[in-house]
Amino acid sequence: MTATTPTTSAPTDSTATASTTVTHWIDGAERASTGDAEQPVFDPSTGEVIGAVALGNVDDVDTAVASAARAAESWGQLSLAKRAGVLFRFRELLVAHTDELAALVSREHGKTIPDAKGEIGRGLEVVEFACGIPQLLKGELSDQAATGIDVFSWREPLGVVAGITPFNFPVMVPLWMAPVAIATGNAFVLKPSERDPGASLFLARLWQRAGLPDGVFSVVQGDKVVVDALLHHPDVAAVSFVGSTPIARYVHDVAAAQGKRVQALGGAKNHGVVLADADLDDAADQLVAAGYGAAGERCMALSVAVVEESVADALVERLAARARSVKVSAGDQPGAEMGPVITAAAKARIEGLIDSAEAEGATLVVDGRGYVVPGYENGFFVGPTLVDHVSPEHTVYEEEVFGPVLDVVRVSGLAEAIEVVNANPYGNGTAIFTASGEAARTFRRGVKVGMVGVNVPIPVPVAWHSFGGWKDSLFGESHVYGPEGIRFYTRGKVVTQRWPHRDAGPAAVSFHFSGDAQK
């Protein structure tokens, strides 16, 4: 298979409008669903329906996977240099069209333009990592492992792989998966969130303009019907998932039962520990940014501040002042620091959890319920919310709120803080704010969490490491992107090779080993 001719022209605008339906991308082109089911797409800032998304079915999945399987046969045989060339061109196109893509994400998701650009930038890091695939896929050689025998190994693609991605990062999470899967020689089928589907087609057009052969990147829009079809399809070799813990567990169990590889990343309840020796002004700034950024709709959001009692009042005072100063507006408005949440149902759920905190005896310091942005009265807004005197028994602590709600749990010191973090069923991310290297080292070694920040509030690893949590935040053995991503999308092959001399004599009947000088 040869790559198609790349272009640098802008993709056709895939922003949903009231008269358009976001469809599938199969075999290098938009394709209507074989069924009639659709779901509305909203602008969360206004509450208005701005379009619809097709809900695919089993037939659509079958068509996409068949196209991907045909493409994978030849794409996996293409030279590493040519694959890398496509990745480099895709990278350039992604940079060139960042503004358009960020505007689309902001409109369908609600996040601010700077936050949408930040999301694209973090996805871009993974693309750049995947550009190094000729180096990343170098095998190993043991020359003269035995007399006249060489042993060498390398990794080969799996074939067709699938990614099921969430609404909160419609660009970054697909880019955690697809560039690595494609660079290693696989064909990738994306099932994006039906809440903000437009970015998936935008990315598909960029891949095509970069010269990626038709069928190597496909998109099937849909809901659980499409998910189940991918999980059960015999030609899908591996499934990557990011989403809530119950669905991550389901995806892992169903796909694993079908003999597939699975990396399923679930939910989180991330704690930011603040010790008495921390710079409280800096800690407050970091907690507010990490707790309210993207309206708290991040699996790495710091949703709990675990604070040493002696400085808790001082920190809460600072947090409250900063929470009240956050500029909340539509994501495309200049100066906006926080936008709406994704749906009216999400808004109602978050406000219900704030209700529960108040009813169960926590102290509501800053109340974001009923927040109204002038000019956007029908938007799905929840204001920054700060809840003090929260205990692990409170519902607002037990649930993954996935909204702009920061809980404050007071502790006696570092040892109790570690106990609080470790007692939580999630283990995605955590952070500590301290001036003590000893305390930081004790914390990072003692917490049962996959990603740890030291005076860094959102410790998402750079692309040449791998992202993933522990406990109920990860199902399966593999983290996403980085070195673990390379291994996940490939399988090893080892060759033991001998080119005998014509006078070597007959082969021995007995089993031989490398120390046998005759073999």
Structure description:
- The strands form six sheets. Strands 15-16-17-14-13-19-20 form a seven-stranded mixed β-sheet, sandwiched between helices. The protein has a six-stranded mixed β-sheet with strand order 10-9-8-11-12-22, sandwiched between helices.
- The protein has helices at residues 58-75, 80-96, 98-109, 113-130, 133-136, 172-183, 198-209, 224-232, 245-257, 280-292, 309-325, 344-359, 395-398, 414-423, 437-446, 482-488, and strands spanning 21-22, 24-26, 29-31, 38-43, 48-54, 140-146, 149-157, 160-164, 187-191, 217-219, 236-242, 261-265, 270-274, 302-308, 363-366, 385-388, 405-411, 426-427, 429-433, 451-454, 470-471, 474-475, 490-498.
- It is an alpha/beta fold.
Features:
single chain, 519 residues, alpha/beta, 7-stranded mixed beta sheet, 6-stranded mixed beta sheet, 16 helices, 23 strands, disordered N terminus
Give the topology:
Elements (H helix, E strand, L loop, with lengths): L20 E2 L1 E3 L2 E3 L6 E6 L4 E7 L3 H18 L4 H17 L1 H12 L3 H18 L2 H4 L3 E7 L2 E9 L2 E5 L7 H12 L3 E5 L6 H12 L7 E3 L4 H9 L3 E7 L2 H13 L3 E5 L4 E5 L5 H13 L9 E7 H17 L18 H16 L3 E4 L18 E4 L6 H4 L6 E7 L2 H10 L2 E2 L1 E5 L3 H10 L4 E4 L15 E2 L2 E2 L6 H7 L1 E9 L21
Parallel strand pairs: 1-5, 8-9, 8-11, 9-10, 11-12, 13-14, 13-19, 14-17, 16-17, 19-20
Antiparallel strand pairs: 2-3, 4-5, 6-7, 7-23, 12-22, 15-16, 18-21
**Oligomer type:** single chain
User: Beta-strand level of the residues, as a percent range?
Assistant: 15-25%
User: How far do the termini sit from each other?
Assistant: 41 Å
Which ranges are low-confidence, i.e. pLDDT below 50, for 5 or more consecutive residues? 1-10, 12-19
Number of helices: 16
Main sheet: strand order: 15-16-17-14-13-19-20
Q: Give the overall silhouette.
A: globular
**Helix/strand/pairing class, anyone?**
alpha/beta
- Characterize the largest beta sheet: strand count, sense, and whether it forms a barrel: 7 strands, mixed
Binned, the helix content reads 25-40%
The tally of strands reads 23
Radius of gyration: 25 Å
Mean pLDDT: 94
